[in-house]
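On clarity, I found the account of how folds are encoded harder to follow than it need be. What matters is that the chain and its backbone geometry are given together, residue for residue. The format is easy to grasp once an entry is in front of the reader. For illustration, here is how one protein appears when written out as sequence plus structure tokens.
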Amino acid sequence: MRLCGKGFFPVIFWVMGLFLSRELSAADEPGFSTFAYGDLSVTALLDAQGTIAPSMLFDRSQEDLKKDLEKAGVKDGAFPSWINAFLVKRGGELFLIDTGTGNPDGVLRRLKEAGFAPEDVDYILLTHFHGDHVGGLALPDGTPVFPKAKIYSALEENDYFLPAQGEAPAGGAALPSLFKPYKEAGSFNVFKQGDEILPGVVTMPIFGHTPGHTGFLFQSSKGPFLFWGDVVHVYLVQFPHPETTISYDVDRPGAAASRKALFAKLVKDEIPVAGAHLPFPGVGVVSAGEEGYLFTPLKKD
């Protein structure tokens, strides 16, 4: 593994081999982009960019993956990848969906460039507990990055990644320390799937990538909008071939089944999405294609 960016905290090294084949670099400018969707203001925050090697993908042959690279005009032998988090402003409230890796040139920097401070964030909604989604919660010394925020996470993620005291957490030793300051402040909340955790915010189970992988469906004056976490890691492959899985998936068949079912629902209901590993800014719509599905970036009003 080679890290090109500056200041990456140790947290990104422990999460289940997440970056073993990904080269990360500090995000290029511009690193944030804002969309209006009804009464929601959605700001995409680019944490990092990198690549994913074909060897990390399963349920599609390496020969076919090579053809996918050639068809896309990718010459370096690896698929491009992004790490995005999302800030949602609704009325006077700010919601942050995931926190990035903890890279100081990533989410935190982009948040400030977009005109916000960490102290402004009211709620943090965690799609799952992999390090590129929770690594920005706390500094290495345990100081909470978002001191006023209330954290929301799925029961299944807690049970899997944060087992009983004395047992080793599935995500590595750094996980409990990231959550500790929020638990001590009484700001850590666990939800059951399907709960409306906050007014107009409903949780959607998208299991497979992790046991509690969750989407957050926001209701807006224009209709629903879904933040789907890690439904897709390699957009060049997994939209046309949603059966393709990745080594990061805890349950590969479950992840593929969830992706196929969700794609069909999004096409039927015409729900726009924001994805953590889609091409920045990662906001768009899913439609049926001649081969599988297509992703089209959402245009700004």
Confidence is low (pLDDT under 50) at residues 1-28. The chain has seven helices and 17 strands. The chain has one domain: 10-297.
